[in-house]
Design brief:
Layout lengths: L11 E5 L2 E5 L8 H7 L19 E7 L11 E7 L12 E3 L24 H8 L9 H13 L16 H7 L10 H10 L11 H13 L4 E7 L7 E7 L3 H10 L4 E3 L5 H8 L6 E3 L9 E4 L2 E5 L4 H11 L4 H6 L3 H6 L2 H7 L6 H7 L3 E6 L2 E6 L4 E3 L2 E2 L6 E8 L6 E7 L10 E9 L5 E9 L6 E2 L1 H7 L6 H14 L10 H19 L14 H5 L5
Parallel strand pairs: 1-5, 7-9, 8-9
Antiparallel strand pairs: 1-2, 3-4, 3-5, 6-7, 10-11, 11-16, 12-13, 12-16, 14-15, 17-18, 18-19, 19-20
Helix pairs in contact: 2-5, 14-15, 15-16
């Protein structure tokens, strides 16, 4: 362990398969998937892509729900994650569920339709009955994603009938992180509807809540563990995994260890380990700092803690700006959004990240912290080059502040990718403006990802829009100005010419959508509109 981290090491403690698990000396970057398959012998969880895309390794993690949490499932906060890119120490104080853990009903053949097996959970019965599996390799991941949906729609009526069922679109959203589908999409979506028609069987959460309460008593305060790093130059060495429990402790630790790697959801760092075999050294995990996970309105802004999950952050943004709902659902997948954080997405600095263009167009600011000192910087000045930013050694992002006034503007976002669900953008753009009483554009902000080495505003295009009437001629002027703002690159995702053409096309689309005369109807802008107009599935 580093000379800067004289912390006493602790075992990793979590709840799994009805027992408390205590692990000593595990490598800090060992994945949950490897532990499950190699040590716990729970081989139902599969390794597919090993980078969080295919969904074959989907598991469910639970911790105690906070009072008043509307998304809680009988005292638990349940969420699916990709086991392949979750580091084992992040399970500390939590409960882990795999496909082996679904409740199983007592045999009762009289209640079963032909071909359904009595020992199966309704999710599994439905997949069998609807022919939702071929080779079966990806099926455990589908089971886990559908199980989370199932548990979030518990028994709701006194006569024993289940409450409102999810729509086809909601099921598709929940399954967007399970990309391996040799049977096609239809049979699995059929199973998603079918599972609610079978006799209900919900998880008994009482013993799990009790176990987590015991773990909470045992795992309060900061957490530090050490293990050998097989990727270290010259052979394995001891590295630390540090998980401070308070914002103050995090700030002090970060200032003392400026060279340590900050870790949030591991949705990017996990790939560095799995795919690039990188030595990431000492890790400081922010996942135990409750102050970093708060989302609240104060001082004229929506403050999103840098440790708030992508799911929670996007939900808060889309609640106030419904036009962000599609980009929220197309941002990676539920397992990634349940683990990754908005602060991590911003700090990562990827030129094709989907969060920064939206936040930049909304005029967001960052609250940066070093020790007990904080400073605020506009997001549009934060990036100084490719994956370079204004953060000083020992400094970190504490929160993102989105002005409440941004939610009163007209806001549009376009994400262009080869695959609709769970794909990296070739280009992502966001446009915010207000129409004055005289019909002219006020304070236009236009931000693009995928057009340069960093996410950045289109200053010349904004100048062509500002103070002008919102007409086709103004759109043409802004489209032409984009050539002064960007010189995009060609890569595997898109050519430079394609990116420039699509950027111009998005401006045209947004004008068609928001023009005063005959704007496009909502059904022309949603991929799910046909399914809502005429449900394909019952």
């Amino acid at each position: 362990m580093s000379d800067h981290a004289p912390h006493s090491t602790q075992p990793i403690r979590f709840f799994h398969r009805g027992e408390f698990v205590e692990l000593h000396g595990q490598p800090p970057t060992r994945s949950v998937l490897n532990w499950l398959r190699e040590d716990a012998h729970c081989s139902g969880t599969k390794e597919g892509c090993n980078e969080g895309d295919c969904g074959a390794c989907t598991v469910m993690v639970a911790d105690l729900a906070e009072p008043g949490d509307a998304s809680a499932v009988r005292g638990l906060n349940l969420r699916t994650v990709n086991a392949c890119i979750q580091f084992l120490p992040t399970l500390h104080g939590k409960a882990l569920f795999t496909v082996e853990d679904l409740p199983q009903p007592a045999p009762c053949p009289a209640t079963l339709a032909a071909g359904e097996r009595p020992e199966q959970h309704p999710v599994q019965q439905a997949l069998v009955a609807c022919h939702g599996s071929q080779c079966g390799f990806c099926t455990p991941g589908f089971v886990m994603s559908l199980w989370e949906v199932y548990e979030r729609h518990p028994m709701a009526a006194p006569d024993g009938l289940r409450g409102p069922r999810p729509s086809t679109a909601q099921l598709a959203d929940a399954l967007s992180g399970n990309l391996c589908r040799c049977t096609g999409y239809r049979p699995i979506l059929d199973a998603g509807h079918r599972m609610f028609e079978l006799p209900a069987l919900n998880l008994d959460t009482a013993p799990i809540v009790a176990a987590l309460q015991t773990l909470r008593e045992q795992t309060t305060g900061d957490f530090h563990t050490t293990g050998r790093n097989a990727f270290a130059p010259g052979g394995a060495r001891l590295d630390g995994f540090h998980a401070p429990a308070t914002l103050k402790a995090l700030a002090e630790l970060r200032a003392a260890q400026p060279d340590a790697r900050l870790l949030a959801g591991a949705t990017d760092v996990g790939l560095w380990v799995n795919k690039q075999f990188r030595d990431v050294g000492e890790l400081i995990w922010v996942g135990r700092v409750a102050e970093l996970q708060t989302i609240e309105e104060k001082d004229g802004a929506l403050w999103i803690g840098a440790g708030a999950t992508l799911e929670a952050a996007w939900a808060a943004l889309a609640e106030r700006a419904p036009s962000l709902r599609e980009v929220w659902k197309r941002f990676a997948s539920p397992p990634i959004r349940h683990a990754g954080t908005l602060g991590g997405n911003v700090a990562n600095g990827s030129p094709i990240g989907d969060g920064p263009p939206v936040l930049m167009a909304m005029g967001a600011e960052l609250l940066l912290r070093h020790g007990s000192t904080t400073r605020r910087v506009p997001l549009n000045t934060f990036y100084t080059g490719y994956q370079r930013n204004l953060l000083q050694p020992g400094e970190f992002i504490q929160a993102i502040a989105v002005p409440l006034s941004a939610f009163a503007t007209t806001l549009r976002v376009g994400k262009i990718s080869k695959r609709f669900d769970s794909d990296i953008s070739a280009l992502c753009a966001a446009f915010s403006f207000t129409l004055g009483t005289d019909g002219t554009l006020t304070a236009p902000r236009l931000a693009f990802g995928g057009m340069a080495a960093t996410v950045q505003r289109a200053a010349h295009a904004e100048a062509a829009l500002a103070g002008q009437p919102w007409t086709q001629a103004t759109v043409h002027a802004a489209q032409a100005a984009l050539a002064q703002d960007f010189t995009p690159l060609s890569d595997l995702r898109a050519s430079a010419d394609y990116r420039m053409q699509v950027a111009r096309n998005l401006l045209q689309r947004w004008w068609l959508d928001t023009r005063a005369d005959a704007p496009l109807p909502p059904q022309a802008l949603s991929v799910w509109a046909p399914a809502r107009a005429q449900e394909l599935l019952p």
